Amino acid sequence: MLPAYTKYICGTAATRQGKAALRELIAGLQAMGASPEVCGSQTPGLPAVRLKEVPGSEEKAVLRRCGESMEIAGTGRGLIYGVFHLLRHLALGEEFPEWDSSPAYPIRMLDHWDNADGSIERGYAGSSFFFRNGKPICTERTRDYARLLASCGLNGCCINNVNVHGSALKLLTGSFKRELRRIALCLAEYGISLWLSVSFSSPMELGGLDTADPLDEGVKQWWGETCLRLFSSIPNLAGFLVKADSEGRPGPHSYGRSQAEGANMLADAVRPFGGKILWRCFVYNCTQDWRDAKTDRARAQCDHFAPLDGEFRENVFLQLKNGPVDFQIREPVSPLLGHLEKTASMMEFQIAQEYTGQQRDVCYLIPMFRDILDFRFRARRENDRTAERISAVCAVSNTGDDYNWTGHDLAAANLFGFGLLSWNPCADPAEIAEEWSVLTFGDDPEVTKTVTDILMRSRDVYEKYTAPLGIGWMCVPGTHYGPSPEGYEFDRWGTYLRANHLEIGVERGPEGTGFTEQYSAELAALYRNVKSCPEELLLFFHRLPYNYRMKDGRTLLQRIYDDHFEGYEEAAAMSEAWDKLADKLEPEVFRRVQERFREQLRCAAEWRDVVNTWLYRLTMIPDEKGRRIYP
Ligand code: GCW
């Protein structure tokens, strides 16, 4: 039963965003079976949803019960969030608490790795809806996407791949001015800013200059003119995202300049237009010789950026991946965050499930993100959690043009959850999962319980049957799906297991690469010592013999065998639990997810057997429980 106030909507919206809020309110209530009458601002006695638009651009929203009415007050943007909040709670059937809320971060965005040809790097949900045949496009889906983002509390998106190539380079030239303008306007209506990824050597690639040196006057002038043209033709352009000196991308290092000199030059170019630079910290040696055991990719972020703290302009945000390496299923929190005292930072998560099952395996990432946001850099210091150290958040997007947006229906929970966490980093992952389930599948308690259980277990399950205890990188090179324990072992990417018949892992304590020493004294002490190192990260930090005793008395090897057998069984149990919902869900949705579970089980069995067999053949130590391994 909807409350009485859903019969009328009072208030007029002045701005385009306010109007969008009103439209969403009407559509949302209608979808829930109400037929609200819109009656301007003049009906004081009536129980109604009362929209009160105030001027400004803040995102704050206030919802208040006034007698029989529900008042939503805010700027146009605030109203959008307020309306979605109200709709969510009505759909959940919850008694509505007052809400007076502002987002924790001013920038909460998705980064798309969409290419101009319509493909998506690490995309698992179809093709791009931003690009087709070398051009940006604005369609009905662009608007739905803006609504989707706003409904989760997000306010920005970078539409093109950080590996800028092909005709995406020309996004800066004005060739696609009209298309970009249309996209920007469509997003702006829902308070979503547009960002573009740019190539650091654009002055050469597009401007015909013979250098991209950030200290060169011609280069500065080229960027200045480019920004003037771009920002004046594209409303709502917020700035640039830059992958420089990373995996073959051009950057300031080619000219003997620092990352700060590179970022600052661009920051100066966008500043007159209120623009910002999101500068990625994914800088490491990707042409390492596997024989070289000194270089440690995990150290790279800190080695490059910690000494530069304080050298960046105010409108630069350092965008760093949540772990020191690369979005593996388990990594410690990047130590770089602990060093940035005078530089704004932006956490980069990945909801595109590149290393976490590619939206074929279910893997709800929100508990992991929450742990990362809760991570404390120094126990005795106030306000020293990740959530407090960062100034902005983004996630690599998991969307595409698939009918259900995210390929796996359950992967949409990651998008929703990321949005809610970026508004409120203290949000509870289990509650988010439950809420998402009710909003998506309805309120049958059995469905809610099953879906929430599956989501909440999924990350641990995935971790169990894939790479153990933080070691990472046992996946098939290139595609990153499925097992290949030594696939990256003799390659150039700095991702080594260094397993022999006695030991496995890279020692990252002071006797090894010294990575542990990049943390504060107390964390370094925790990680350095195998006895105090959290077990789930044991093989991230240490090289250990297979007969190393875990806290519960099992050997390291037995723990890995057990995890792999159990991981498969648990995946099978999730799949069976889903099967029981056959009569309770739309047949098409039920079938789609069921098919994904079939693939997940095939893949989990493959991981289990490959990892166990590989270790057995190396060590010739059998599984204590005599389960099937292939000798
Ligand atoms: O992990 C790697 C991915 C690349 C990606 C890169 C990055 C966009 O495999 O596909 O490139 O990270 O984050 O830049």
Which kinds of small molecule does this entry bind, naming each only once?
4-O-methyl-beta-D-glucopyranuronic acid
Helix content: 25-40%
What is the terminal-to-terminal distance?
Answer: 62 Å
Summarize the main sheet. Answer: 8 strands, parallel, barrel
> What's the Cα radius of gyration?
25 Å
Query: Which descriptor suits the 3D outline?
Result: globular
Contiguous runs where pLDDT drops below 50 for at least 5 residues:
none
Order of strands, main sheet, comes to 7-10-11-12-13-14-15-16
* Structural class designation: alpha/beta
Strand share of the residues? 5-15%
Total DSSP helices: 17
Number of strands: 18
What's the pLDDT, averaged over the residues? 97
Short description:
The protein has about 625 residues and is of the alpha/beta class. It is built from 17 helices and 18 strands.
Structure description:
This protein has 631 residues and is of the alpha/beta class. The chain is built from 17 helices and 18 strands. Strands 7-10-11-12-13-14-15-16 form an eight-stranded parallel β-barrel. Strands 2-1-3-5-4-6 form a six-stranded mixed beta sheet. The protein has a two-stranded antiparallel ribbon with strand order 8-9. It is globular. The protein starts with 7 loop residues before the first strand and ends in a 12-residue tail after the last helix. The mean pLDDT is 97. Bound molecules: 4-O-methyl-beta-D-glucopyranuronic acid (GCW). 4-O-methyl-beta-D-glucopyranuronic acid binds next to loops.
